[in-house]
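Notebook B, p. 112. Complex prediction, attempt 2.
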Amino acid sequence: MAEFFDQYLWTWLAYLLAALVHATLLINVVAVGALIFIWMERKVAGRIQDRLGPTRVGGKFGWLQTLADGIKLIAKEDLMPAGADPLLFRAAPYISFCASFCAYLALPFAFGWWALSVNTAVFFIVAVIGLEVFGVILGGYASGSKWSLFGAMREAAQVVSYEVPLGLCVVVPVLIAGTMDLVTIGEMQSGWFTNWYVLHDPFTFITFWVYFTCAVASVNRAPFDLAEAESELVAGFLTEYSGLRWSYFFMAEYSSMFVVSGLASILFCGGWNGPIPLTHMLGIADSSNPVVHYLANLLGCLNLLGKAVFGVTFMMWVRWTLPRLRIDQVMTTCLKYCTPIAAVMFVGATGWKYLQLPSLNGLVPRRPMGEVREYWLASDQGGSMKSAPAIPPATVRRRPVHMEVR
Amino acid sequence: MAPINWHTFYFLLFALTAGVFAVAVAVTSNVVRMAFYLVLCLSATAGLFFLAGADFVGAMQIMIYVGGTLVLLIFGVMLTAQGPFISMKTRSGEWVLGLLAGGSLLAILISAAVGVRAWRPVELEEHSPQARVTASRLGMGLLGARVDQLDQSDKTLRAGMSGYLFPFEIISVHLLVVLIGAAYLARPKKRMRPGEETQA
């Protein structure tokens, strides 16, 4: 795209424009996503708790409610407590938002649709999501209010503890796939839904649920939203925030909900591969026709988005069903249940893979391993990186995934 | 298209960010602000790693230092803070010591950097594929197999390139020892007798 703009503009402006287009695309996933999720949260809450949710604000089913909210938040007076640390108070929402936005950089949406193909994408996403808590802690501390401080301290304790089982759960699919590359992990689960890692063996099935529990806790959603427990702490770390800054925190929350759900769907539920391999059956997945290829990718993208949205909806369902835990119960859940279960599941899944026990993944024969589209081996074979041939990612056919060590 | 050396551009950007905020860490006296600057500084360093194609090390940097150590640091500050915002007073003696230690490190680094015969300039390739550096070799190396050294013809040399499993394990055990030591140091110094009152 930069080349295209470069024909008409200065080079630096061309690059800037191209970068802006890409960034805008990604930011819109976050912003529009948050817009829809907030509306959805109201509707879901309304259904579950037997109330109506937005109806009359405007539009069908009250979808203009979030827009009205947005206008209100922009127009609202921006307050800062006199005792606050001005720099940190201002910076905290942006840290949270940037951290959860950065995770989208490495999240593939379909085969070939990613912003950055990081070789260790799983690790990158887990690391970056962990940064979101930093904004919350700084915001809570810098507010100069005891409620905020309490909320921040709870958040810090909670997130630091929940990173442990979360990391253990994430390692399981990585171990089965033998790579940390999200694209390869997703591609290795192509085929029927029986190929998904959640059905690989009983251990991965339980791992999935432990992962989801820890993910809910790490994105700070009810029943683990101790940091903003409004019944005890006014609004926790959000107490002193209002207006646009407050909404940045909320966008960060919703976008990281989406990221952890998307990560779950790629790691455990096949990612962009639907339950029925429609594109492979029709033979359009690897079509050389760009339009058909685009359509196949679009279908894959919709698959991934659908799964991720389902995950987010599931989180809403949990939120409006379960009561909030006490802080000691949150810690107990993490340290006495999630971590040991995750550790046992890790050992179990390792053993299952090592002993090559029968797995549901073998129920429907998957495509031969050599067919797994792997795009990175191309430059890895040559040894010298500089001499690697320029092969467009989507057209490369690969040999088996498992590297042979002579 | 006039080539813009984006590699150099981003290198300067990240390096400048890291440098400026490193100075800010040293200058400011508010501990939590210090941690905030340190976050930016370390993230910029992680950016440098990403720029060099070392995704794994970059992500590691973010995960361990920014996500782990600094969160714990702020957590510690919040737990132990007496007043609302702590500020650290640096005595002049500490300045001298710090300058001495930092200056000597800087001298070593500068002498090492100047001592390099010729810096290889960044080669710009037309239509080069995005530099694909994978962490697989590193991972295999940590497991004890240097896949990049399989072609080593010299038998004696190959024996020495059996991977990083041993140092990795030593570091792990070292960390375990540190953890146990910390727990030992932090234990209650005196056993409380049943009848004795706790001194608040």
